[in-house]
Amino acid sequence: MPINPTTHNSSLTSSLSLFVEQRLGRFHLQAELTLPAKGVTGIFGTSGSGKTSLLRIIAGLDRPDTGKLQLGNQILLDTQRRQNVPAHQRRIGVVFQEARLFPHYRVRGNLTYGMPKQAPPRFDEIVELLGISHLLTRMPGTLSGGEARRVAIGRALLSDPQLLLMDEPLTGLDGARKQELLRFIALLTRQINIPVMYVSHDPEEISAIADHLVLMESGRIVASDHLNHLLQRFDLTQKLGGFDAASILEGQVIEHDTHYHLTRITLGNTHQLLLPGTEANIGSCIRVRVLARDIAIATSAVKDTSYRNQLPVTIEDTTVLPETSHSVELRLRMGRFHLRASLTRKSWDEMGLHIGKEVTALIRSVSFNPL
Ligand SMILES: Nc1ncnc2c1ncn2[C@@H]1O[C@H](COP(=O)(O)OP(=O)(O)OP(=O)(O)O)[C@@H](O)[C@H]1O
Hints:
The structure is a single chain. The chain is of the alpha+beta class. It folds into two domains: 16-245, Rossmann fold (3-Layer(aba) Sandwich); 247-370, CATH 2.40.50.100. Helix content is 20%, strand content 36%. A hairpin with a 4-residue loop joins strand 12 (246-257) and strand 13. Helix 4 (123-130) packs antiparallel against helix 5 (145-158). The longest helix has 17 residues, at 175-191. The chain is globular. The structure holds adenosine-5'-triphosphate (ATP). Adenosine-5'-triphosphate binds at residues 24-25, 27, 45, 47-53, 201. Keywords: ATP-binding, Cell inner membrane, Cell membrane, Membrane, Molybdenum, Nucleotide-binding, Translocase, Transport.
């Protein structure tokens, strides 16, 4: 059940802007950032790059040496003016790696703990959305890891936050639980109308839920943009290690072929893709990933082939990465969408390809990975 956006939050236009500087021993965090007012921002970077430190400052749990932090119209921190809104007044929900529930309160007590008295009555709505109504009378010690995490998310949401921070919320869960909760968080973040910052070093998680991506390295923000824009950047290939060279596309489900168990989606009403069957409702949006190495190129449409997707594209840019000198990396444009592909340098030369050439991208349905 979607949360009613009109009752959910008064400041739907909140966007976060910050610059902070903090020395922690030998580590130096220097970050400047403006984030979109809605959607999920994935914070990605190697261990020790400063992701948690940044989140702790935003939550008000740590104070930077210098900095300014603004959420919507409200200044939360301005070291120059000695302004600092304490953590409990920031209206920022935080979910950490561990659920950190109050052990002596039942689940219901944990959920209602931070609920403002004047908050809209969303308790039943959120409990149902999280699927935890059967847990309300249980003590935290009796919950599984995944259940405790869902309660922690519920507690954060019920505090009526303007921003939700999630720091590796799936760490330590086993594969099936992790997938279940990841799907749940992805659904939840599409239904709530507050911006979410989601820290993870797992590209799978980020690919499944982030709209925007912030890439951190040694305390600095290396890049911040729409996730698929960053994935299209050749220069970030190595820094986005683990993501594989891939593209993420979002489209609307228009048809299910129940006989062959295939799903058709439309991308902005201009292009269509045929994917492995999904359970998604007609009209709903789904996200798919396709690896660069799973896209083949032909100079014209191909007959009698098992490639179910033949997309007219233009070669927009290319490069040869030093780590894969046998192949050419391609960025392809398809209307307002972009795709990354790679093929051998030998094919590139023999097919007479060049920037600006119109070609056909061939993609097997099974190569699409619905996220
Ligand atoms: N109180 C502290 N004193 C000294 N150094 C610290 C302190 N807190 C954090 N650091 C250092 O700051 C750096 C960034 O830590 P942080 O936890 O923000 O990284 P991270 O990107 O979240 O890492 P991970 O993915 O491993 O959780 C690390 O090198 C860490 O050792």
